[in-house]
Write a structure and sequence with these properties.
The chain is of the alpha/beta class and 128 residues long. It has two helices and eight strands; from the N terminus they run βαββββαβββ. It has two domains: 47 residues, 2,3-Dihydroxybiphenyl 1,2-Dioxygenase, domain 1; 50 residues, Roll (2,3-Dihydroxybiphenyl 1,2-Dioxygenase, domain 1), CATH 3.10.180.
């Protein structure tokens, strides 16, 4: 049996990052622990577990990229009220990276740069 477990985000200040996800998306903290000495905060974001981890002692890592790239490119959250959520994200420091025109189906998406250079798609699906 397989099931999806988590997405992992690394950054210099996991408490600050976790608070951002709480403030803008209503995420909730599940638990806090250490992974190889790195402080880690497990969050529930819309039913998906996200582990937000700082650097382990002595660890040095390059910055991530919120630009389109190979590999895990972005995470997506869905909303039925896109404009107010995007305004809230911008007020909390998120940078809008791309806002393509609505799809023929009526779906709309905005891509933002979240803390720690995480690319997030905020999606308003087509009316069903």
């Amino acid at each position: 049996m397989l099931k999806f477990n988590h997405v992992h985000i690394k950054g210099p200040d996991p408490k600050k990052t976790a608070q951002w996800y709480i403030d803008v998306f209503g995420a909730r903290t599940i638990e806090e622990f250490l992974i190889r000495g790195a402080p880690t905060i497990a969050m529930d974001l819309c039913g998906v577990r996200i582990n937000i981890t700082g650097l382990a002692p002595g660890q040095k890592l390059p910055s991530g990229s919120a630009k389109p790239h190979l590999g895990l490119e972005h995470i997506c959250v869905e909303t039925d009220d896109l404009e107010p959520l995007v305004a809230k994200l911008k007020a909390r420091g998120a940078e809008v990276l791309d806002a393509p025109p609505p799809a023929a189906s009526g779906a709309q998406a905005v891509f933002i740069r979240a803390p720690d250079n995480v690319r997030i798609e905020v999606l308003k699906p087509a009316r069903r």
